[in-house]
Amino acid sequence: MRVAINLLRVAVFGTFIGHGLFAITVNPSWVPYLEFWGFSSDQAENLMPIIGGLDILIGLIILIKPSKYVIMYAIAWAFLTALMRPIVGESWLAFIERAANWGAPAALYAILYLRKK
Question: Which domain holds residue 66?
């Protein structure tokens, strides 16, 4: 069980570090996702490094010492950011392709907090 937990922690870490680094460098393809929520293009570009820093922090916390609430945040954030793809007009396949982004933290949460002790 410990091996599965550690693999999931590494998977979540990789997902959040990778996305965080893309956001810090202001990935232009992500601007429409923030514009959907009413941010201007300039505001989106200014907000992305903050979001990226938070993603990196989440990844590090889950790798070093997972917290129930941080994992819950990771599930919700990854699910909603994957769901943004079809909401802004991309294919549902873009959402399905990202199932592991929220599925890995969901599995980690289930193993750590939902199984019977």
Answer: 2-114
